[in-house]
Design goal:
With 225 residues, the protein is α/β, with parallel strands linked by helices. Helices cover 40% and strands 11% of the residues.
Length: 225
Amino acid sequence: MEDSLAAVEAEVVACRACPRLVAWRERVAAEKVARFRADEYWARPVPGFGDPDARIVLVGLAPAAHGGNRTGRVFTGDRSGDFLFAALHRCGFANQPTATHRGDGLALSDVFITAAVKCAPPANKPTPAERDTCRPYLERELALLERAEVLVAIGQFGWDAVCSVVGVRPRPRFGHGAEFRLPDRRWLLGTYHVSQQNTFTGKLTEPMLDAVLRRASELAVAIGA
């Protein structure tokens, strides 16, 4: 049968392959933090979303416990997402600078966003077994995004995940602004993760993230020319 992004999304949402992650995401949804006490949590794996014809794919680590695990959309409803979507809007990839919930009117152009692990992990640290169990979903997403020319890894985990999927040996060194031409001729770019730890301390600033996104756009245009 022919695969599709819709088929991947349906399988991701229904997945219960990792007992530790299932237990954690459901526990977080039941024991809500005070600021989201009235919210009904998604509490399921979170599929990728965006433009199916995207030339640029952003690959993060995993949904946040009170972000994507609550809203059902990766990088949505938390401070990391606030930083990321504001940058996407500044660079012309999003129609609005905020992402608060599914159905908030957000639309992405030429960008698709996904994560290496689809469930929120305790302490934001999936185990190697959980990473490997989830890997086929990322493999299928990247294969189905046929126009994608540039992959942007948001953090070291995303960088390593892309290298693993594509089969890069040895792995190139990750760093903010790092660039690497993959064996399949796509480009891999790196950015520091948009976590509060990085953005609040100034390790990652708005101009730094904008520069990576604009470089991704330049490479996509050059390849497509």
